[in-house]
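Chapter review: from sequence to fold.
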Amino acid sequence: MADFRSGFVAVVGRPNVGKSTLVNALVGEKVSIVTAKPQTTRQRILGIRSRADSQIIFVDTPGLHATARKLINRAMNRAATGSLVDADLVLFVIEGQQWRGGDSHVLERLAGVRVPVVLVVNKVDLVRPRSVLLPLLEDCQKKREFAAIVPVCAQSGDNLETLMTVVLEHLPTGAQLYPQEMRTDRGRDFRIGEVLREKLMAALDRELPYGLAVEILAVDQGDSLVRIAAQILVAKASQRPIVIGRGGETLKAIGQAARIDLEQLLGRKVFLQTHVRVRRNWADDARSLRQLGYDAES
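The token string follows.
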């Protein structure tokens, strides 16, 4: 088709502005996990939306943050900035309540980007009174020459069709890049691990979720049952009993919540076996990070 459009759209922003919720809504399928906690997304994930006239590859990225003391934080920043290299368009996501210091940091990272940048003002449903949104939009227009500024609510889907129209207007003509039925570039084991990590992050309080990682050890997929063995890594010995809970109740509840989503993802009954293992300081250890699939520094 002569006017078929395709390309990569990098979705960037500071942590917890709703990038993954936006990508899921635009793709029409949950390809990235979502929690209320910042830095839920740790690695670059492609979400692919295919239509008769176009194929848009949304690149969900970790939140860009100025402070990156550990190797994992630097790996997350590289994943986010690396997505800009091959992008045909950038969606810069902020929250509708106000411009924050973290947004200014992301804007600085976008200074050298030569492709169009669309500012997506998310969570406008939370703006009260609604009249305060207009001054924010006017202020944003002065910060950079954006290709467009689009207020949306990713959670409810409000104004996403307008955003899709803007995206398509800025994508080049080109061939389909992925199979029509493909929704993400991430494989089965990665997605299984992310589901379990989502439930861990949602269930555990304070800083503990950021010290956790999930490693899938084995997946035995039968005709009617999938057996999954996974280990949950914690950075300190004191964190292990918190994850397990009294009598194993916390880990059991997390496993039950994960199993519901996994059965929907895999289309089969799931038997999930989890173990909690201490791997000290894994988030600042290059070897451990590479084993977990991160682009870690030596």
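Two observations follow directly from the output. The beta strands are 5-12, 45-51, 54-60, 89-95, 117-122, 148-151, 212-221, 225-234, 269-278. The longest strand covers residues 212-221.
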